[in-house]
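pinned: reference chain
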Amino acid sequence: MVLYVISLVSIIIATIMLYQRWWRSNIPPGPKPRFLIGNLHQMKPHWTHSFIEWSKTYGPIISVWMGTQLIVVVSSSDLARQVLRDKDHQLSNRQRIARMTQSGNDLVWSDYSPHYVKLRKLCTLELFSLKSIENFRSLREMEVRSMVESILKDLMIDSSNDQTRKPLVVRKYVAKVVLNTISRLMIGKEFESEEGKEFKSIVEKEHLLSGSGTFFDHVWWLKWLSSWFISDKEFLAHKERRTKWFRGAIMEEEDVAVEDHNGFVRNLLVLKEKKELSEETVHGLIWNMLTAGSDTTAVVIEWAMAEMIKCPDVQEKAQQELDSVVGSERLMSESDIPKLHYLQCVVKEALRLHPSTPLMLPHKASETVWLGGYKVPKGATVYVHVKEIGRDPVNWRDPEEFRPERFLQEETDVKGRDFRVLPFGSGRRVCPAAQLSMNLMALVMGNLLQCFSWSSPVPGERIDMSENPGLLCSMKTPVQALASPRAATRVIPYNL
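pinned: its structure tokens
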């Protein structure tokens, strides 16, 4: 009997070792992992910085072990095409992070399934179709005009106090106009001042948590064990805070009738009453739209404004085009965008150089696939390094420079068809709000440039272009700039 048990255990161990050897064979090269912890000890706070360094050593496709989880990172347009087009069917699922993604019943974190297709179709029809975008155009233009008035009012207050000109925090105005636009689409109203501040604080914390993780998040058996014995107080406190804000700002009282709600939320609640959507899905979908819609757009606009303060020639060219096409007797509207070719190039260049999510959200291999001649085993996580692809010197001349003119020389699609620049992803998981986001970016930037000239508070001072760690690539130091009113501000009433 003892010999039988020993033989059985030996066979099992040998089988496991052979399976692990097969599973790890032919995978992409990468830094040597340590037992259990993998490469976690080598990871920098900005994961992308580590991936860039390793890609220089091992090539455009690398293996990184986050504990016991294999991560494959691709950083070339050819490999991105394989992930997002050629092998899209096998790589369309999501690798979920338990801290932030819950059960994956929302749109962003669900696997590619009939449930995902249903949610995406719902959002596209209600929010992101060309008809919906046009229907809500006046809303966006109204919010942008309000932003211009707010900036002008703050400048007038400073001048009336007879003080030296104070720099404006660009993020304050950009974040507010984008959040107000999205909130009015979603719930039919703007958030109160304190609600908006709390939302921004919660989202910033969430991005930091999602980009950090702990040792227990990446070792499968420790993850299971920790769920029984260890409480993540920071995450639980964040979750409770988010739920409290959500109930107060979005869902209001539980007994409020569906017809008393407005915007997209009302349609979701109708589907919930019909048992077509669960409460968890409704909450997750609303949170997806608010966070993905507001933060990603605002982040890119702030980066673009920072670049144009650094490059006054770019700012001047955009303003000359605005003066020529729009003039100074009215504010720019969305209908002007197709005629503002250089402004569109500014938006594209900002998206190329500063995509809001430098690493595309994690894909998961539903079966073993081959990429670039290497094996990606079933269950592995695949990241597309969007930021590095957008700065690849193989595809871009002077890739680190902010030169919108490059897009005048060649018509380039940035919504998923050109794999050299992928700010919205591509394939089955491409961002459904790409066109809406680009319209809003162009509208906000166009009005900021038409109405004001922007400059650094200290001539010659270098702008801090470093980014925060985390899922979202936001500026570490908010941009501050001096705003000088231009002729177009004459259409704004001065009795603000």
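why pinned: Confidence is low (pLDDT under 50) at residues 14-23, 225-230. The domain at 103-214+221-364+396-491 is CATH 1.10.630.10 (Cytochrome p450).
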